[in-house]
């Protein structure tokens, strides 16, 4: 039992997931296009053609071609869920995202205990993550697999003794799956190489071999997949994505704006469009955060060494992803970094913060403030279009 409640944490964990499911499915149902984008339609088309026995293909210029734009992991799993549930591929994609979060919550429960899992799991209820989960995008699945990879990676970095073949196999499969969901998964290779070099400097040769061999195998697998794309389409990644123009200052400004909006969990800052509602939301967030911080300072706490270690590794992994994305954005003009592209960074950062706070004996008042902050983040779900006129109509009715 969690102090102050009459319910076992396992039931509350299930309730949290059920709430996420209800909110995500509700959002997807009421949205005119069910939270789909051009990317979503490519995922869904490939999944449909896999189910129809046509292979991992999309129609382009009235010709069926191999889908080299995105790796096949996400569409393949959508097709699998659709086949097993008889749902159409659109709703199978939503169910797949929710299955991923269920597995993540169960993993947290196993790895960190029920009470901490419940507290850390609340990040799934933040407005930006509810919106992310409602979309037919590969990011929710990517986040869940990334976290599992991160957990096993850190365990093998910090546990005494030598890594076993089972550890090698788990990390290899998780890393490979990560790259099959999003090409951006290759950023883990850099981290693993650094882990191998660090282990070599510490004179743990077997562990160094473990990490360097993993890196080599992932490079071979990723290179093999790019060759498969080239063999099918004549392009390594579904078209031209890279150029030789380096845009350091403009990209830095884009990232600064994106990171600012990741901090503003209630309402985003939009240059030239931000209004009174943005100012009210920002003030509310500052007030709630300040009150919560003051309350926590008065609370007894003792941060365990293992918790500090997890927080450091999570911060390092989040920063590594951010640096990877920054370098890539300088040589590839993809979308500006928003909540979707920055989700791996934000997810790990928020998880680390919640893990750290879970060591505090949090009072009921602090829990209430935290709950209000989470609920306030749902304002992110309110569309910007015609918001002022809709709000004025509501005031007139009152």
From TrEMBL:
Keywords: Membrane, Transmembrane, Transmembrane helix. Coiled coil: none annotated. The chain crosses the membrane at residues 12-30, 77-105, 117-134, 168-201, 208-228, 276-294, 310-328, 340-358, 364-382. It comes from the Bacteria. The keyword Cell membrane does not apply. The keyword DNA-binding does not apply. This is Uncharacterized protein. It comes from Dyadobacter helix.
